């Protein structure tokens, strides 16, 4: 299937992490034009060197917990050419029970997972084409809350992210702009491995007991769906949140 992404301009926030780098490589193979936002300049530079000549429009790095850095990234989006797609991937993941969480920790998580998404998406909307597609990456933790490893700030921020996507779908739909969320399950990325640390394999086995497919997902499992949602082929998909979790959520656990 031709996804008709050739020549389309896509901005990717969180382009250097597991899912982001897989998505960047896939979009490059489809001959899309890319604006990359990442946290570490050395990773951005390394990623840029892997791209085809002419694929990269611009790249900007920043710590999304910092308002000034977010403003700089937002300015790059505002100064870009017309966008045909915007993808938001960054995530601040921490273990915090709601009863023990501190407001400063909630604020840090929301700065990255919600306020950066809000600010970037608002900027992207102002330069979006009439057929643009917005994709936000949420989490199954927005819908299920594991009692043995609580992450209250992360869970609530991801639910807020889905609501942002729905607001864009409703408000910008009349312009031909679509917005959707993806709800990944356990995906083997550097972020999840860092989060679980040495307990990754034990937590993976515990989690996979509840996954009908019996395996963790790969970054490509998520990036493939993002590619579809960015494509004109998905032109009537709008305002929804799609699980990519091996069947975990459908069991109603």
From TrEMBL:
Keyword entries, A-Z: Oxidoreductase
One function term, GO molecular function aspect: oxidoreductase activity
Record-linked InterPro entries: NAD(P)-bd_dom_sf (IPR036291), SDR_DHRS6-like (IPR051122), SDR_fam (IPR002347)
CDD domains associated with the record: SDR_c
Pfam (any one): adh_short_C2
Family label: Belongs to the short-chain dehydrogenases/reductases (SDR) family.
Full protein name: SDR family oxidoreductase
Lineage: Bacteria, Pseudomonadati, Caldisericota/Cryosericota group, Candidatus Cryosericota, Candidatus Cryosericia
């Amino acid at each position: 299937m031709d996804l008709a992404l050739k020549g389309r301009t896509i901005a990717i926030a969180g382009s250097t992490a597991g899912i982001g780098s897989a998505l960047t490589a896939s979009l490059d193979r489809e001959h899309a034009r890319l604006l990359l936002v990442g946290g570490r300049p050395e990773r951005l530079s390394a990623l840029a060197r892997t791209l085809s000549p002419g694929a990269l429009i611009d790249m900007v790095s920043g710590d999304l917990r910092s308002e000034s850095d977010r403003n700089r990234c937002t300015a790059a989006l505002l100064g870009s050419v017309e966008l045909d797609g915007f993808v938001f991937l960054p995530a601040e993941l921490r273990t915090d029970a709601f009863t023990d969480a501190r407001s400063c920790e909630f604020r840090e998580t929301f700065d990255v997972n919600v306020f950066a998404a809000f600010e970037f998406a608002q900027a992207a909307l102002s330069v979006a084409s009439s057929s643009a597609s917005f994709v936000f990456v949420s989490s199954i933790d927005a819908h299920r809350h594991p009692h043995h490893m609580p992450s209250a700030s992360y869970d609530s921020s991801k639910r807020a992210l889905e609501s942002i996507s729905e607001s864009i779908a409703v408000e910008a739909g009349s312009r031909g702009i679509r917005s959707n969320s993806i709800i990944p399950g356990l995906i083997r990325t550097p972020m999840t491995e860092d989060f679980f640390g040495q307990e990754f394999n034990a937590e993976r086995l515990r989690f996979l007991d509840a996954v009908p497919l019996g395996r963790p997902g790969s970054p490509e499992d998520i990036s493939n769906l993002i590619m579809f949602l960015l494509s004109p082929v998905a032109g009537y998909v709008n305002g929804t949140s799609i699980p990519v979790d091996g069947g975990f959520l459908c069991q109603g656990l």
